């Protein structure tokens, strides 16, 4: 299987957000959970911010590289699962059939209560269920904009311009 994947965070109103690695093939979209929103790092920074008024943000910036490496490592593990056809084996992993997608859109977005983001991907399925993902890395958004139209076709509306320079 060709690795056509990108990372995005599923955002929810009443439950914790989840980070996913999303794989695309001609008939399915696979969603492999990388981590929950509130990892040990996130909780530690929230506590530091509440006690020391912004000190958590200073430490968060210092450890951003470490967190990015962790996401890369988890993505590599997910890529190995994808290449070995062993997807959908964990309880929080799932897939959706492309034919079940009614509408889908990618639009630019600013940061909000769910954190820093460059854009959002909204999906509505034929059964009425919805998913919203946000891109926290511009490269992941670019990958989605380049890869999703090939599979989703007319049911995908892109409401942002792809900046080739990044």
Short structural description:
With 166 residues, the chain is α+β, with helices and mostly antiparallel strands. It has 3 helices and 8 strands. 34% of the residues lie in helices and 31% in strands.
What's the CATH topology label?
A: PH-domain like
Q: Average pLDDT across residues?
A: 78
CATH superfamily: Pleckstrin-homology domain (PH domain)/Phosphotyrosine-binding domain (PTB)
Architecture (CATH level 2) name: Roll
Largest sheet: 8 strands, mixed
Oligomer category:
single chain
The low-pLDDT segments are none
Number of strands: 8
Radius of gyration, CA atoms, in whole angstroms: 16 Å
The helix tally amounts to 3
Shape: globular
Number of domains: 1
- Portion in beta strands: 25-35%
Arrangement of strands in the largest sheet: 4-3-2-1-7-6-5-8
Question: Helix coverage percent of residues?
Answer: 25-40%
Structural class: alpha+beta
What is the end-to-end distance?
Answer: 27 Å
Helix-strand sequence: EEEHHEEEEHE
**Class in CATH?**
Mainly Beta
SSE layout and pairings?
Elements: E1 5-10, E2 18-24, E3 28-36, H1 40-52, H2 55-83, E4 94-97, E5 101-108, E6 119-125, E7 130-135, H3 138-152, E8 156-159
Parallel strand pairs: 5-8
Antiparallel strand pairs: 1-2, 1-7, 2-3, 3-4, 5-6, 6-7
Helix pairs in contact: 1-2
């Amino acid at each position: 299987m060709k690795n056509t994947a990108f990372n995005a965070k599923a955002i929810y109103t009443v439950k914790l957000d989840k980070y996913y690695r999303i794989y695309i093939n001609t008939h399915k979209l696979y969603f492999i959970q990388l981590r929950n929103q509130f990892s040990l790092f996130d909780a530690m920074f929230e506590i530091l911010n509440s006690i020391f008024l912004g000190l958590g943000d200073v430490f968060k910036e210092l450890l951003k590289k470490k967190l990015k490496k962790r996401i890369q490592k988890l993505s590599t593990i997910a890529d190995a699962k994808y290449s070995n056809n062993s997807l959908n084996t964990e309880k929080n992993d799932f897939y959706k059939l492309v034919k079940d997608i009614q509408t889908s859109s990618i639009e630019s977005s600013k940061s909000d209560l769910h954190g820093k983001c460059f854009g959002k991907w909204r999906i509505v399925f034929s059964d009425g269920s919805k998913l919203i993902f946000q891109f926290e890395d511009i490269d992941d958004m670019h990958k989605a904009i380049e890869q999703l139209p090939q599979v989703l076709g007319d049911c995908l509306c892109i409401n942002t311009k792809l900046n080739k320079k990044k």
